[in-house]
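Run log // design_07
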């Protein structure tokens, strides 16, 4: 086992179908993980709480994981922190039953521990929006000079429409709807 902070002991969970116990893990990751514009930095606290249930060939983990994720607004590029609260569900299969599964994705139970590090991290990052926004109505950046239109809502360029054929065409198109 890799010795992550997210290992859960199965010692007092019977293999009898339906046996269950609750658990709580918390800790950090040693390496940064990212998906698109969402980043779970190294050292950021992650907490997960849930239940382990014996289900014949293995143990079903059902949990809620919480962490704060670093994101970047896809419109104005401002970095922001967003709280994530995601469902984690993962099936771990007893070492002596793994052969019965052809699926390479099956996670084996080695010894009497399971490691939820990957499951928790993946669930958090997969839950992040592909197009993060700092706020629902973010106005983004001025396409001409890059000024942040949230902080300078009255921002405009004098004569743009008259000077620039492309801008004029766009303005005409907008007027026509
Ligand atoms: Zn924004
Ligand atoms: Zn501008």
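design_07 sequence
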């Amino acid at each position: 086992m890799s010795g992550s902070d997210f290992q859960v002991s199965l010692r007092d969970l019977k293999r009898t179908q339906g046996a269950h116990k609750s658990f709580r893990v918390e800790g950090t990751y040693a390496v940064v993980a990212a998906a698109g514009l969402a980043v779970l930095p190294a050292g950021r606290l992650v907490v997960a709480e849930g239940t382990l249930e014996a289900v014949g060939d293995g143990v079903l983990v059902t949990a809620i994981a919480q962490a704060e994720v670093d994101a970047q607004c896809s419109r104005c590029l401002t970095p922001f922190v967003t709280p994530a609260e995601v469902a984690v569900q993962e099936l771990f299969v007893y070492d002596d039953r793994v052969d019965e599964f052809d699926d390479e994705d099956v996670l084996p139970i080695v010894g009497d521990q399971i490691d939820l590090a990957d499951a928790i991290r993946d669930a958090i990052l997969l839950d992040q929006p592909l197009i993060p926004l700092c706020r629902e109505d973010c106005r983004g950046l001025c396409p001409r000079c890059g000024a942040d239109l949230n902080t300078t809502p009255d921002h405009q360029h004098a004569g743009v429409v008259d000077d620039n054929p492309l801008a004029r065409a766009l303005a005409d198109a907008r007027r026509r709807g």
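The radius of gyration is 24 Å.
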